[in-house]
Write a structure and sequence with these properties.
The protein is of the alpha+beta class. Helix content is 38%, strand content 25%. Strands 16, 20, 21, 22, 23, 24, 25, 26 and 29 form a 9-stranded mixed sheet that branches. It has a 5-stranded mixed sheet with strand order 2-1-5-3-4, sandwiched between helices. α1 packs across α3, α11 crosses α19 and α16 crosses α17. The radius of gyration is 30 Å and the shape is globular.
């Protein structure tokens, strides 16, 4: 009965909200046997850990030095003093608002005792790191609710840039119904209100296997990810999960929580893929924060690029080509304008545009290493019967659509001998890429199976590296300035298991740091977040609603030149190996188009706009002249439409043009026809007066070519 009493004490209040009766009513539902067993083992291990910690604190009674924010130094007791206690010494407000501590540069639970001399700072929800911990803890709350309500087998529950999600398994046929989200949300809120503590437990591999013996997904993670003798587990209420942490002190710090969507996802660890259920959500320290977010979200929904794309007839999707976009004429105009902008920058900056095949032998991807690490995200196929290699098994694909351009560019570099005089060689490619995204992860233009990037690769000598990185950063700043985005940079350094010599990594990271310092924009250091083949600079831009988007990137690569045996003849005559830089500014052109649509709310700047000018004749007598005006605009390469609907009054046609977000309306009446002029209005109903047709077209062309953001104010 001991375990069952523990269940009664810790069980979710939300069970009552789901129609399950409490102990004071008829019958209490019996918890799943695996949950009771796991909880019992956790409590046993937790009690043993508490006893060990108390013994260690008694045996090692020693004073440690702690550096607090602002330079203050205080004494603390090893294995006894916690960051939360130190925060309370600074101020009760800090203790209340701190989400997590950073101890000697590492994230640290607030209730975890300090072990040695430490430098400490406190992170609140206002910081990116604080949000990540807060939302990760909220994902654990969601997981606990899913276990109770749905009998879910938990898989993973991370934070994201704007919230959290949890993936779990409900069986082969079972899915999460939309009608279940409100009940699941209610349980999450009640668990939060119960202020259940997050308890960190260190467990051996054997103990981990025993804790999660009924969860095959966790068992796989233990075998694949747990490389040391122990790993951490967090208990919260009745939930126990394998997790690195850190977490909130308790669930009561979650003041507002809302579940948003349910969809499917794929488990792609070793073994056969499994279809999982994904529920996503958002949370805040206060209900007021959630209300403010809801108002912001309402504005964001009005700007949703899928809504704008439909209303403005820019693009659509069809079930017969899932994950791919059909761009209509107006959307194609925006797409081409973006590409023309980048192509103009390529010409100015010494890039050469190339075209490479879409379909390659899998031998290429085996050579590049992508087949080993990226195979599940590629579209692979067999050629028709007569072309199938005789030695190839029938179930082994021998061709694959390219998910990236870099291996093809390496082939291009290697197809003939190269000289130092050709370096740096900057190859750019807008070729279509294909990635096998899970259907549940697809979302409008932001995540597709077929897309194009402003992808480029720079092959350079080591002593040219810093100048090329500076050039890439200047490229970013120039483009984002025109697009109206602010941005922040992050340097990600070598991860565990990096490939290559430490000396090369040291040199590359130093070069990137020097380039960032010289660039003059703020940047963050993210130790261990680099790719296995080289360090990188990630670019996070902010749109008009303050939302972050990662679009551009600059990555160094030491491995592909080695894998492809790339060489050039140096000035001294010896063969030398180039350094490869992967870089993109827009990233996916489709995704950038979505970000721009939402940022401007469908009110496109003139140079991108699919609604530049509409010509409106006052009456039928002016329709012929109106068509001449339209033809003049089109001949100059501008978008010119005609609204000669005689069934509507002039004022209603002007209003219709403004609601459609035409940058300008050219109204032509008898006077304008006789003088060969146009009367100009903006989409904000500013009347700019009469201009000669030639002057108006010339000025619009000038404003389009200079890509100004506010042509309506400058005409």
């Amino acid at each position: 009965m001991g375990l069952f009493q523990t269940w009664l004490r810790l069980r979710l209040p939300g069970l009552h909200a789901c129609g399950l009766r409490t102990v004071h009513e008829a019958a209490v539902p019996t918890p799943p046997h695996w949950l009771l067993e796991r909880l019992g083992l956790f409590e046993e291990l937790w009690a043993a850990q508490v006893k060990r910690s108390a013994s260690k604190a008694q045996e090692e009674q020693r004073t440690i030095k702690v550096s607090l924010p602002g330079g203050q130094k205080v004494d603390a007791v090893a294995w006894n003093t916690t960051p939360y206690q130190l925060a309370g010494q600074i101020s009760s407000a800090l203790a209340d608002t701190a989400v997590v501590a950073e101890v000697n540069g590492e994230p640290y639970d607030l209730d975890r005792p300090l072990e040695t001399d430490s430098s400490i700072r406190f992170l609140t929800f206002d910081s990116p790191e604080g949000k990540a911990v807060f939302w990760h803890s909220s994902a654990h709350v969601l997981g606990a609710a899913a276990e109770q309500l749905l009998g879910a087998v938990l898989c993973r529950g991370p934070s994201t840039e704007c919230g959290f999600y949890h993936d779990f398994f409900l069986g082969k046929e079972r899915t999460v119904q939309g009608s279940e989200l409100p009940v699941l949300e209610r349980i999450c809120r009640e668990l939060a209100a119960a202020a259940q503590p997050f308890r960190r437990l260190e467990a051996s591999r054997g103990q981990l296997r025993q804790l999660f013996k009924d969860n095959p997904f966790k068992l796989r993670l233990i075998e694949e990810k747990v490389t040391g003798p122990t790993a951490t587990v967090y208990g919260c209420g009745t939930s126990v999960d394998l997790c690195r942490g850190p977490h909130l002190r308790h669930t009561g710090q979650i003041g507002g929580l809302k579940l948003l969507t349910n969809s499917s996802s794929l488990w792609r660890s070793s073994g056969a893929p499994e279809t999982l259920q994904r529920v996503s959500g958002i949370s805040f320290p206060s209900a007021e924060g959630l209300w403010a977010w809801a108002a912001w979200r309402e504005e964001a929904e009005l700007r949703d690029h899928r809504r704008i794309g439909k209303e403005q007839e820019l693009f659509f999707f069809h079930e017969l080509s899932p994950g791919s976009c059909f761009f209509l004429p107006r959307g194609t105009r925006v797409y081409h304008a973006l590409m023309a902008f980048i192509r103009a920058e390529y010409t100015r900056r010494g890039f050469s545009e190339v075209k490479t095949p879409m379909l390659f032998s899998t031998k290429l991807w085996e050579q590049s290493g992508h087949w080993e690490h990226y195979r599940e995200d590629m579209f692979a196929l067999q050629p028709p019967g007569p072309d199938r290699p005789a030695s190839s098994p029938s179930d082994h694909p021998t061709l694959a659509l390219k998910p990236m351009n870099c291996p093809a560019h390496c082939l291009m570099f290697a197809h003939r001998p190269r000289s130092w005089r050709e370096l740096p060689l900057r190859l750019a490619d807008f070729g279509a890429l294909h990635r096998a995204e899970a259907s549940g992860g697809l979302g409008g233009l932001t995540r597709l199976r077929c897309f194009q990037q402003d992808d480029a690769h720079i092959f350079c000598a080591p002593d040219q590296l810093e100048a090329e990185i500076r050039g890439c950063l200047d490229f970013l700043r120039s483009v984002y300035s025109v697009l109206g985005f602010s941005f922040r940079l992050a340097l990600s350094t070598r991860p565990p298991g990096f490939l290559g010599e430490s000396r090369l990594w040291d040199q590359a990271e130093h070069v990137l740091q020097q380039a960032l310092k010289a660039f003059g924009e703020p940047w963050d250091l993210r130790p261990g977040d680099g790719a296995f083949y080289g360090p990188k600079i990630d670019v996070h831009l902010q749109d008009a609603l303050g939302r972050p988007h990662q679009c551009g990137t600059i990555q160094l690569d030491f491995q592909l030149p080695l894998r492809f045996g790339l060489r050039y003849r140096g000035q001294a005559g010896a063969l030398e190996r180039p350094v490869l830089i992967h870089r993109a500014v827009l990233g996916s052109v489709e995704r950038m188009l979505a970000v721009l649509a939402e940022s401007c709310g469908g009110k496109w700047p003139l140079w991108l706009s699919p609604f530049q000018v509409v010509v409106i004749p006052v009456g039928p007598e002016q329709e012929r002249y109106a068509r001449e005006v339209q033809q003049s605009l089109q001949a100059a390469g501008l978008v010119g439409d005609l609204d000669a609907d005689s069934g509507l009054s002039l004022s209603r046609r002007v209003r219709r043009a403004q609601l459609a977000h035409y940058n300008f309306q050219f109204v032509v009446g008898q006077k304008e026809q006789s003088r060969r002029t146009v009367n100009i209005r903006t989409r904000d109903n500013r009347r700019l007066g009469e201009r000669s047709l030639t002057e108006a077209v010339g000025r619009l062309l000038e404003l389009q070519n200079t890509r100004v953001p506010n042509a309506e104010e400058m005409l």
